[in-house]
Write a structure and sequence with these properties.
With about 120 residues, the protein is mainly alpha-helical. The protein has helices spanning about 5-30, 35-60, 75-85, 95-119.
């Protein structure tokens, strides 16, 4: 089961929603903003992190990101995970793009809807 499998996408999206909404509720309760605005902010932040992290992992060159061409570059967490022998056949650049668009994009879309409802 790869990262683009519908079950993995659904579970990842649910986890992202719970993390974003929970963090946003904490932010809303501890600051003087409404809880809806706090939830929307939390969902927005989780969506941005998921989208950028997965897209960076999907587009990373095999030698890693480096300002100099000689020597080893820095590898992202997603790229190091993709090199692991146990998951090498389940994580691909295309799968990470699909995951980024579904999980990151879905969380961002929900945050935009919630921002619109709160405003």
């Amino acid at each position: 089961m790869g990262v683009a499998h519908p079950l993995v996408l659904a579970v990842s999206l649910a986890i992202a929603m719970v993390l974003g909404a929970g963090g946003g509720l904490a932010y809303g309760a501890l600051s003087n903003v409404s809880l809806g605005y706090g939830m929307a902010t939390g969902l927005f932040l989780v969506g941005i992190v998921a989208l950028t992290g997965a897209l960076l992992g999907a587009t990373e060159p095999p030698e890693g990101w480096s300002s100099r061409r000689r020597g080893a570059g820095r590898r992202s967490f997603a790229a190091r995970l993709a090199e692991d022998v146990s998951v090498v056949d389940r994580v691909s650049g295309g799968g990470l793009v699909v995951w980024a668009l579904v999980v990151g994009g879905g969380t961002l879309a929900c945050s935009f809807l919630l921002f619109d409802l709160v405003a």
